[in-house]
Amino acid sequence: MRHQLGSPIETDQEVYREEEETYDTFVYHSKSRKYLIILSSQTISQEYRILEADNPTGAFEVFHPRERGLEYSIEHFDDRFYIRTNLQARNFRLMVCPENSTNKSFWQEVVPHREDTLLEDLEVFKGFLALSERNQGITQIRIISFSGEDHYISFPEEVYMAYTSINMEFDRELLRLGYQSLTTPVTTFDYNMRTRELTLLKQEEVLGGFDKANYHAERLHAVARDGAKIPLSVVYRTGFRKDGTQPVLLYGYGSYGFSMEPYFSAARISLLDRGFAFAIAHVRGGEDLGRAWYEQGKLLHKKNTFYDFIDCAEYLLHHHYTSRNHLYAMGGSAGGLLIGAVVNMRPEIWKGVVAVVPFVDVVTTMLDQSIPLTTFEYDEWGDPRSKEYYDYMYSYSPYDNVEKKAYPAMLIITGLHDSQVQYWEPAKWVAKLRAYKTNDEPLLLFTNLDTGHSGASGRFERYRETALEYSFLLDLEGIRD
Amino acid sequence: MKSTPPQANSIPHSLSIHGETRIDPYFWLNQRENPAVLEYLQEENAYLESQLAHTKPLQEKIFQEITGRIKQEDQSVPYLENGYYYLTRFESGKEYPIYSRKKGSLDAEEEVLLNVNELASGHAYFSVGDKAVSPNNRFLAFGEDTLSRRIYTLRFKDLATGEFLPEQIPNTTGLAAWANDNSHVFYTAKDPPNAPGV
What we know:
The complex is a heterodimer. In chain A, 18% of the residues lie in helices and 31% in strands.
């Protein structure tokens, strides 16, 4: 829609209408401010429309028409567009085209496809390209200068996350970037792309005596049942005994190709200091090891996500990081589906689980066309109006697979106004678990009657829920202080 | 204090497709407007309260611990855009950020774009979506969501006078883009409300 400041909104003009329900639409301007850009995006296809920002009443023109399975993103600079695309490149490659000839027949390769490295993002400067790449689950930032030099920024830790931050100006040698790890608080750097100097601008202060030296992070690899090597990122307080007596909280997500980052959490210290280790399972369904990692954990391969998580748990048990009486799991949203699935598949290995805004009523939701989520999601979960997908989904959907058996302790959290996962999914799940479960482990549902998918909005108040989750886990460990 | 768990009523509902029928006893819980639904959710909340009552001191201790690690007064590293340094800062004891900018230099006088603490006052939930400043640096467009449904009302502020403009555009994605004439603004309307992923 186009609005003119000062005129009634009833007179706003529609400039583009998305007719396909599975596409989301965004409008923004290019970093160069030369173009206004409309993005139509769906799980596996994108389409852009562009219009010169000096000519707002003109017509937007298609950059390259949508094709099922063709993903691309564009960055304007000078007289050209850079294109990050999966065109004949599963892990994406970088291409370029003249600004007035944008059809894919004009795209020329700049950085080729690599089998082991995912090209995730691009930042353009007057003299440099800054590429965000991911290799073996670890983010890397690569600088290519227009004079032909090419290098990676080196960071001191084995497991970390580094990402380009807000870079709004072209004419800069400094790249603003963010950095953190399981043991390093959020840090902001300027990186001089010419002299290769990294300048620390700020590291988040963690009050209350946090000392990085008291914590240890490591990267492990669990071998899944089909032979795939699943990375695990683990952090604990120095002195953690790997004799099976200390608790481990295993966290996972594994959908939409979202990669799980080894992020810093100041809240998490409350668990680590009370003897917990925290582990992230980089299961399939995320894009941690490239596009293939995602494709092996969606649609008719969705169960790999759940199997991987269980196999990561088995690895931690086998290597005495913990034992069944001290193993916990947590996940939210699609990660709540993961939790729901693994407690049905292997209820006996978990002492307790926390599922936040969990997507657990998969079959019914995916068949309910009145829910906004659904049509957007067919490419992720499949369409259960086809019997093959119905049968597969039905075989893992947590609500449909609750059985008369013993379940671990469970805390389930939802928000009444959640528009992504409706409150009734967890509510129905809890009601059915109450009727079916055969043991006396706690089963608790908290519905926040004021909030939606993201929980509380204030920077302090949001930690009421974290405190509830942690207290639930600590209480199961008999820790009261 | 409730010590026995609530049990939602079983009202069998048949769902049929592909010649198969699933009987869903709790399908009725999707009736948002049904008072029995809210009642059930409240019973579950009360049950949780009773079961975790003994952890209240621990919850409070952990809450204090976590929030005690956060710097009360904090400020982001400013970034440069179109002649201004933009920054986000928090004031002591306040839940929400203040978005501001400084012209030309970090030593310049601070100009507040939005004090979200003021905007959020009276709302149980408040979130600012995208913020977009016009090319001449005079007008701010921003989205606000007061229900956590990711549906934003687009609002405008004249940064020269500090006044919010009367026009408000409901049901948007909260993202806006200015044309170079500083007058036309492009945005995405939502109909029906749609949502990008879980």
